[in-house]
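User: quick one - fold this with heme C bound?
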Amino acid sequence: MEAYALEFANLLLRWLHVIAAIAWIGESIYFVMLDNSLHPPRGEQSKKMGVFGEMWSVHGGGFYHNQKYLTNPAELPNDLHWSFWKAYVTWLSGFGLFAVLYLFNPAFYLVNPGSSWAWAAAMSGTAASTLAVAFLVLGYVLYSQMCRYISPDMEHDGLLSAAVGVMMVVVAYLSTQIFPGRAAFLITGALMATCMSANVFFWIIPGQRRMVAALKAGQTPNPIDGQRGKQRSVHNTYFTLPVVFLMLSNHYSFTYSGPYAWIIMSLFIFAGAAIRQYFVLRHSGKNQLAYPIVGIVMLAAIAWLAAPAATPLADAKGAVSLDQVRTIVAARCMECHSAKPTQAGFASAPAGIMFDSAGQIVAHAAQIKQVVASRYMPLANMTKMTDAERAAIASWVQQ
Ligand code: HEC
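Assistant: Sure. Structure tokens for the protein plus heme C:
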């Protein structure tokens, strides 16, 4: 019952999380597009009112005329539209989901008995959960301090971006050494998403509040507030595509279960940022194909690095029968992968995959070989599968 309640909570939180994220990212992409599509105002009236740029568009059966002011609109109405709840709800629902799935089940998902670092391999569930949360908190603190010290006046933003890139490679490396691959990708994505939400919460919104307060008091707002908000907002733009990839990666175990997981993760982060850059420039009228080409070359490198090895395990001696495979699977997999799992914490077969009948095993043969060879399954090797058994399965699938 408790396992079912957690699974249902997982479903509801995931639904909320995806919807909030679509709303947030959609609006954020819209505003970046708007900002980059602005033209100098055409009408005399607009010029006189201090309009910085404007954009005309057609959408949903009507025409829209957006105008941007920097810090000096002639009047500021009270019904100003603010964007922040979508960002906060995305983070809160995402953290809730992370808690329900990972933090409550650290033994399955966060402990990595296969880690080459002895202390990480020996970590308790509580220690792994604490460390996962520490990654999010310390990751944001480090990123934010880098923004403050490397480019406090927005004069070294290029250097800052490079430093953030290096930081992400280090995080990718550390997380894949400490946590199982699936959790490592998710935690790195969650770290970037935490920076995005914290940028909104600690920098963008407070700065805008100060600007509005100054205008209402008849003073000129301090432009640094707008510039700092913009710096963080630009980072958020380049984080978006990598974060969405990292969140989706848990459906594709080949991305995170091989030896090059940290390189694959880093390449995805840079490919996402490069592809995003193409669209950012495109909206300001430039068609810089070099960016998507770099992105595609990186994706091709990932496809090559992530390809399952041809002979991952020494072949078992002699022919392996389906009956032998059924015995191995029954002992090592079926406490989870069954219509009625006996493993506590599972209300239904994980990933919808069951091995109750021979037909089900045959239907999933290729997938079974891949997850067993990469040691992704059994999860955290809970059922203590041996190398001989992995080799037997590989041989049987090859036959
Ligand atoms: C302790 C529980 C547990 C055991 C034991 C276990 N699995 Fe899994 N398995 C899971 C969970 C949870 C998932 C879903 C994780 C995910 O979505 O990547 C999963 C997912 C899978 C998938 C889908 C992965 C993908 O990337 O699509 C396959 C295939 C699989 N398991 C095969 C096996 C095989 C074969 C065994 C036995 C050698 C096994 N599992 C043992 C819990 C378990």
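One thing worth noting: The first helix runs from residue 2 to 37.
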